[in-house]
Amino acid sequence: MLFSDRLEARIAECGNPICLGMDPKLSLMPVERRHSQVHTPEDKIRFFYMDILEECEKRNVKPAVVKPNSAYYECVSIEGMRVLHDLIAAYKSAGIPVILDAKRGDIGKSSAAYADAAFRIYAADAVTVSPWMGKDSVGPFLEHPANGGVYALLRTSNKGAADFQDMPVKDSTAFFQVAQKLVEWDNGNLGAVVGATHPEELEKITSFFVAAQHEIPFLIPGVSIPGVPGGQGGDAKTVLQAIANGGGKRHFHVLNSSSGLNFAWQRSGKEAEYAAACVDAMESLAEALH
Ligand SMILES: O=c1ccn([C@@H]2O[C@H](COP(=O)(O)O)[C@@H](O)[C@H]2O)c(=O)[nH]1
């Protein structure tokens, strides 16, 4: 089954388009309030996300997908990467697909090795890639036997996105040129990263794919949760409206919040309730988007 079909079925099944980012920030993970046996940063990360998973299962409130960003695990230690691997396995076995946010891409043979690492070693369902090096760089991810999803960076959420992505190219912009290539390269497993922070661009990008009669799933990072610091300011309802205005499919695209959902306990200040606060925030986001 193609990734786009699996994703659409998953969003319909769980009833929300939420992508729970999993970007550990140790100072905001008060795990020792619940577990006295936490001794290392790796334990802290493991307990934190396992508590959130347990709470999701207990309340039957699950995100459509999760997205750990590998940087936050790699910078902890080699063992941190083992924790990333184990969390991917745990969330997958709870039926939640995992997007590994690693932003890979290289010459063909090196991309093939990156693809194998993402899909076989980490066993992720999807991975983020940079399209900058072209078709032979993205191809090995699309052709990997795991048949996983491949989200290419298209119009990112950061301020610097404008530096290159908005550059005028052939009567349009660089990101529209990339969008055209994505349509050409897609084999049913390709998606695009489009930031939540620029809804006007999101609407235009949606219209582009709709006009090409070739919608691909968007991973939309940059969504903030009201009252929780650290997000990028994107508003989830505005994002869905932009997709609707562009004529896009309703249950196809996922909206990512990492710090907003992970550290939602900051709203009440009740540190020991970090897992419940995360799932509360997910539940109210899901309701608001229903
Ligand atoms: O354009 C992009 C691409 C990736 N990201 C990643 O998503 C999360 C966002 O975290 P928040 O805490 O919700 O802001 C993070 O892993 C980024 O590296 C992005 O923000 N924008």
Automatic annotation (TrEMBL):
MF (Gene Ontology): orotidine-5'-phosphate decarboxylase activity
Pathway(s): Pyrimidine metabolism; UMP biosynthesis via de novo pathway; UMP from orotate: step 2/2
Listed EC numbers: 4.1.1.23
Keyword field contains Lyase: yes
Pfam name, any one: OMPdecase
GO biological process: 'de novo' pyrimidine nucleobase biosynthetic process; 'de novo' UMP biosynthetic process
UniProt keyword annotations, A-Z: Decarboxylase, Lyase, Pyrimidine biosynthesis
Domain Orotidine 5'-phosphate decarboxylase: 17-274
Origin: domain of life: Bacteria
Family: Belongs to the OMP decarboxylase family. Type 2 subfamily.
PANTHER family the record matches: OROTIDINE 5'-PHOSPHATE DECARBOXYLASE
The protein's name: Orotidine-5'-phosphate decarboxylase
